[in-house]
Amino acid sequence: PVLRLLEAQLQDQRREHEEEMEALRNQVDLMQEELEKQQQAFLQTLQLSPEVQVELGLQQEITRLTNENLDLKELLEKLEKNEKKLKKQLKIYMKKVQDFEASQTMVPVERRPHERSMQVAVQRKEKDFQGMLEYYKEDEPLLIRNLIT
């Protein structure tokens, strides 16, 4: 039983190897055909006058630049789409912050001075700022709850 299993695995591996080799042979054949076409085009180009060679070179460069331009336009569209998405998220978060601030105005008057004295420094990616948070010890559970939510 174990020997048969090993033989079956070996045959599967051999079959996979042969399929891979065939795919690689086909790929090599396609590359050889492409190389022959490029060589023929190159030889034909050499037989042309220098003016025509320059014109063909310019046409190829224009084609390359056009393709590059299309790629850049596609990238720009993706970035603009991402920017719109981020702006929508920012509006949502701004609304949440406003709602939170509005809910904080409902807090009893004796607690407001404590919360208004809290200062938070925003951390930015491009710089290594570290924020400090000032609060009263009795407000710690409320602060933790608000940080979590």
In words, what does this structure look like?
This protein has four helices and no strands. The chain starts with a helix and ends with a helix. By secondary structure, it is an all-alpha fold.
Largest sheet: none
Please tell me the overall pLDDT: 84
**Class derived from helix and strand content:** mainly alpha
Contiguous runs where pLDDT drops below 50 for at least 5 residues: none
So what's the overall shape? flat
Organism: Dicrurus megarhynchus
Keywords: Coiled coil
Protein name: MYO5B protein
Summarize the topology.
Elements lengths: L1 H46 L2 H55 L7 H5 L23 H9 L1
Concise structural overview:
Residues 3-103 form a coiled coil. The protein has helices spanning 2-47, 50-104, 112-116, 140-148.
What descriptive keywords fit this protein?
149 residues, mainly alpha, 0% strand, flat, MYO5B protein
